[in-house]
């Protein structure tokens, strides 16, 4: 490899970021590299090419034609229909999927669980998971279908993008908008995580409404990489293009991470979930989980999300004479849940870090029997209580998901999930009601 930034090997240590959500930013790895006063000068500084999305040493078009990737991947879906997925209103749950022993990088380890709509029609979403153990080598992924929101559950991800480097640990998330080329290193080896992909829109911060100016995720905690580039020949470098859920490859002889400077408000970013400032009830009742929305991808209907990313972080539970765990419910949104670490307040067992559950539109769900009974046994004596060591999350959509067959038939599927509610007994006391009514 020829001339590169000095700190290539240590470049993920002590990374410095730009900050702010949706801000127009600019970054130069070499001072003076950004064209000033215009975007397309006849000659750019230092002999660079200007390119929309990036300002590069060589434009990204200089590659050989794309061809279907071999071996084909086969487990990524971006248009959900009866050729690749099925529907069921049944409550679904999965144990954490084992991380393979065979060398598997982020691309090979990625598989779709469920989703709705179509990347071709620019409306919908896909929920994927990955289990992998090795860095992508001499290749970069470019997703033409949509934006990726990556939630690592195990193992750090060192992500090189055309805008620079992001160092993402479990407990943090990264968003890689449509069209950016990126490469994922896995410094910890065995790694697992969740990915929400949205078609046709981008994530926003939720409107804070009556909360006012402060709270939930703060704009300044979203971190954007600083420009970083590498120069020189990289023979046999592969660009993997995800297009319509299929993967295509094209060869080029240089690294795509050759962007010396960039500006604009379209950039990858990361966010540390521990920075989230949760709001909740301070007297009675249980809030709708949308109160804990970190990011939302809207539809054209105000207030109806294509995909909300909601978290259940450590927090105080203080509500009086209230059933504090999530209430029993069925609702118009479909809820995919994952657990990054710890336990989840509605499930005493069976919902494990790295596992997942899906409760689709109008499918009833809620706390398992053990959680219900423990809550009732504690009764109204429950003091303010802090739930700690927990980070669960939900991808919630107004579109009804179809489920990929490999997820439905997975050996990690918990076929006994329904048993967690079967023991819920009727506590209805008809005699008490009769006595009370007689007294009136
Ligand atoms: O179903 C779930 O566990 C998610 C959820 C949590 C909560 O606190 C209230 C409603 C809800 O859907
Ligand atoms: Fe729910």
UniProtKB/TrEMBL annotation:
<keyword id="KW-0828">Tyrosine catabolism</keyword>
<dbReference type="GO" id="GO:0004411">
    <property type="term" value="F:homogentisate 1,2-dioxygenase activity"/>
</dbReference>
<feature type="binding site">
    <location>
        <position position="365"/>
    </location>
    <ligand>
        <name>Fe cation</name>
    </ligand>
</feature>
<feature type="binding site">
    <location>
        <position position="344"/>
    </location>
    <ligand>
        <name>homogentisate</name>
    </ligand>
</feature>
<dbReference type="InterPro" id="IPR046452">
    <property type="entry name" value="HgmA_N"/>
</dbReference>
<dbReference type="GO" id="GO:0006559">
    <property type="term" value="P:L-phenylalanine catabolic process"/>
</dbReference>
<feature type="domain" description="Homogentisate 1,2-dioxygenase N-terminal">
    <location>
        <begin position="17"/>
        <end position="273"/>
    </location>
</feature>
<feature type="binding site">
    <location>
        <position position="335"/>
    </location>
    <ligand>
        <name>Fe cation</name>
    </ligand>
</feature>
<dbReference type="GO" id="GO:0046872">
    <property type="term" value="F:metal ion binding"/>
</dbReference>
<comment type="pathway">
    <text>Amino-acid degradation; L-phenylalanine degradation; acetoacetate and fumarate from L-phenylalanine: step 4/6.</text>
</comment>
<protein>
    <recommendedName>
        <fullName>Homogentisate 1,2-dioxygenase</fullName>
        <ecNumber>1.13.11.5</ecNumber>
    </recommendedName>
</protein>
<dbReference type="Pfam" id="PF04209">
    <property type="entry name" value="HgmA_C"/>
</dbReference>
<dbReference type="GO" id="GO:0005737">
    <property type="term" value="C:cytoplasm"/>
</dbReference>
<dbReference type="GO" id="GO:0006572">
    <property type="term" value="P:L-tyrosine catabolic process"/>
</dbReference>
<dbReference type="InterPro" id="IPR005708">
    <property type="entry name" value="Homogentis_dOase"/>
</dbReference>
<dbReference type="InterPro" id="IPR014710">
    <property type="entry name" value="RmlC-like_jellyroll"/>
</dbReference>
<keyword id="KW-0408">Iron</keyword>
<keyword id="KW-0223">Dioxygenase</keyword>
<feature type="domain" description="Homogentisate 1,2-dioxygenase C-terminal">
    <location>
        <begin position="274"/>
        <end position="428"/>
    </location>
</feature>
<feature type="binding site">
    <location>
        <position position="329"/>
    </location>
    <ligand>
        <name>Fe cation</name>
    </ligand>
</feature>
<dbReference type="InterPro" id="IPR046451">
    <property type="entry name" value="HgmA_C"/>
</dbReference>
<keyword id="KW-0479">Metal-binding</keyword>
<dbReference type="Pfam" id="PF20510">
    <property type="entry name" value="HgmA_N"/>
</dbReference>
<feature type="binding site">
    <location>
        <position position="365"/>
    </location>
    <ligand>
        <name>homogentisate</name>
    </ligand>
</feature>
<keyword id="KW-0560">Oxidoreductase</keyword>
<feature type="region of interest" description="Disordered">
    <location>
        <begin position="62"/>
        <end position="88"/>
    </location>
</feature>
<keyword id="KW-0585">Phenylalanine catabolism</keyword>
<dbReference type="InterPro" id="IPR011051">
    <property type="entry name" value="RmlC_Cupin_sf"/>
</dbReference>
<feature type="active site" description="Proton acceptor">
    <location>
        <position position="286"/>
    </location>
</feature>
<comment type="similarity">
    <text>Belongs to the homogentisate dioxygenase family.</text>
</comment>
């Amino acid at each position: 490899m020829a001339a590169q930034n000095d700190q290539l090997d240590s470049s993920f240590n002590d990374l410095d970021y730009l900050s702010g959500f949706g801000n127009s930013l600019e970054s130069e790895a070499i001072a003076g590299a950004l064209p000033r006063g215009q975007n397309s000068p006849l000659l750019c500084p230092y002999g660079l090419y200007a390119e929309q999305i990036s300002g590069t040493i060589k434009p990204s078009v200089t590659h050989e034609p794309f061809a279907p990737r071999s071996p084909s991947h086969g487990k990524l879906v971006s248009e959900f229909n009866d050729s690749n997925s099925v529907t069921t209103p049944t409550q679904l749950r999965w144990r954490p999927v084992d991380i393979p022993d065979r060398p598997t990088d982020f691309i090979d380890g990625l598989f779709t669980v469920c989703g709705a709509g179509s990347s071709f029609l620019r409306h919908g979403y896909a929920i994927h998971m990955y289990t992998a153990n090795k860095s992508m080598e001499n290749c970069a992924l470019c997703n033409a279908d949509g934006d990726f929101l990556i939630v690592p559950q195990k193992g750090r991800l060192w992500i090189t993008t055309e805008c620079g480097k992001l160092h993402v640990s479990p407990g943090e998330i990264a968003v890689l908008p449509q069209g950016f080329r990126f490469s994922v290193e896995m410094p910890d080896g065995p790694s697992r995580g969740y990915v929400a992909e949205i078609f046709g829109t981008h994530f926003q911060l939720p409107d804070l409404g009556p909360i006012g100016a402060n709270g939930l995720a703060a704009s300044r905690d979203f971190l954007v990489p600083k420009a970083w580039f590498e120069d020189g020949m990289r023979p046999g470098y592969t660009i993997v293009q995800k297009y319509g859920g299929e993967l295509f490859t094209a060869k080029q002889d240089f690294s795509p991470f050759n962007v010396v400077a960039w500006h604009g408000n379209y950039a990858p970013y990361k966010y540390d979930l521990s920075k989230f400032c949760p709001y909740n009830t301070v007297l009675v009742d249980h809030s709708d989980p949308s109160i804990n929305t970190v990011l939302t991808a809207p539809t054209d209907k105000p207030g109806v999300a294509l995909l909300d990313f909601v978290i259940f972080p450590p927090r105080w539970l203080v509500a009086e004479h209230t059933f504090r765990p999530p209430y029993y419910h069925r609702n118009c949104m479909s809820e995919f849940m994952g657990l990054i670490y710890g336990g989840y307040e509605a499930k005493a067992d069976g919902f494990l870090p790295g596992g997942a559950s899906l409760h689709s539109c109008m499918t009833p769900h809620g706390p398992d029997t053990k959680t219900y009974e423990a809550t009732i046994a504690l009764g109204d004596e429950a003091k303010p209580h802090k739930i700690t060591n927990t980070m669960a999350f939900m991808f919630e959509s107004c579109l009804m998901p179809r489920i990929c067959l490999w997820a439905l038939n997975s050996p990690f599927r918990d076929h006994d999930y329904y048993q967690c509610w079967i023991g819920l007994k009727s506590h209805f006391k008809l005699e008490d009601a009769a006595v009370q009514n007689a007294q009136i």
